Amino acid sequence: MANDQPLTKEAILEAAEQVLRRYGPEKTSVVDVAKALQVSHGTLYRHFPSKAALREAVTERWLLRIAGPLQEKANQSGGSAAQRLRSWLQALIDSKRKSVIEDPEMFGMYSAVTLEAVDMITEHVQLLIQQMTHIIEAGVRTREFRSGQPEAMAKAIFMATSRFHHPAYAYEWSSATIDQEFDLVWDLILTGIAGGK
Amino acid sequence: MANDQPLTKEAILEAAEQVLRRYGPEKTSVVDVAKALQVSHGTLYRHFPSKAALREAVTERWLLRIAGPLQEKANQSGGSAAQRLRSWLQALIDSKRKSVIEDPEMFGMYSAVTLEAVDMITEHVQLLIQQMTHIIEAGVRTREFRSGQPEAMAKAIFMATSRFHHPAYAYEWSSATIDQEFDLVWDLILTGIAGGK
């Protein structure tokens, strides 16, 4: 990119993501990204005052790419609410597992940011819980699920499935029994949301 | 300890634990433990061929001290099975949280060993799942819980509560909402094991 073009936030984040992938999150500096964009590091610091700010912004954009297809899934209406909920959870789990293998630098950065940028992660989790709440509300309306507080149920399900999607657990996802373990937890959850209706 | 006394495994592990607490798991060597016991490091290497073996053995002993009081809780028979199960889970969670604060060196070593010594950790988890299975079986017998496979339910509950007792999550245990989050997950679990009976 020539340095006489307007520098959009999107262009910076795209360049930053590429540089982060090439050098790894630990070694990438704001100056490296400025070089890739052929702008002065002063220009870049006006947008992102620190390496931490840049990392957070790149991670936030990456998380939106995870949440987007899940939002589409949450908006679908075919099949039972139980099928949709399971399919949504499986999509969340699959997207995280795929990232560990196919995009390890970005996944590593997201894992690190999870420990630091609490507000941004809380917002991402809140978005995912809203998506699940939407599915659960539909299941309550059709009496497929017991009445109760759909948002509280969604939170409980998100936390009860942490083992399968939280980055702190990524080291267990290659276990031969991980899918079988998810089946057990899913059976418990399904009885928990359908059971006492 | 004078070096003409017999060197029991217990005495070595006790000394090793004290040395590990003093120097931290990273800095402690087998030689440090030999010095504390006033024996040659050759003598100690006959018992523990590597630093990793020593760390595993100390962690294993530490985990048995966690599992012991839980076994007593699992053997109790007063109150409902639901109360006993919740009280058992709370005791597991409390013992882990207490360790983070009061025994950070041992907890840190246990966290590290969790990623490495898979067999030993699997055995510990298996022991805890057996204890929960015992409580759930009693609840199934009295029809407080739905019929099903108590061991599978115990596994599911152990995994669904990972966030609250697995060391990879320790950084979240100081959150102001952690107890409230456990309440939500517990409600889901309780309906899951009682619901469809």
TrEMBL record, chains A, B:
PANTHER family from the entry? HTH-TYPE TRANSCRIPTIONAL REGULATOR RUTR (PTHR30055), TRANSCRIPTIONAL REGULATORY PROTEIN (PTHR30055:SF151)
Q: InterPro entries, alphabetically? A: DNA-bd_HTH_TetR-type_CS, Homeodomain-like_sf, HTH-type_TetR-like_transc_reg, HTH_TetR, Tet_transcr_reg_TetR-rel_C_sf, TetR_C_27
Keyword Transcription regulation applies: yes
Protein name, please? AcrR family transcriptional regulator
Q: Which residues, as ranges, make up the DNA-binding region of this protein?
A: 29-48
What species was this sequence derived from?
Paenibacillus aceris
Annotated PROSITE patterns: HTH_TETR_1, HTH_TETR_2
Q: Which UniProt keywords apply?
A: DNA-binding, Transcription, Transcription regulation
The answer to whether keyword Transcription regulation applies is yes
Positions of the HTH tetR-type domain: 6-66
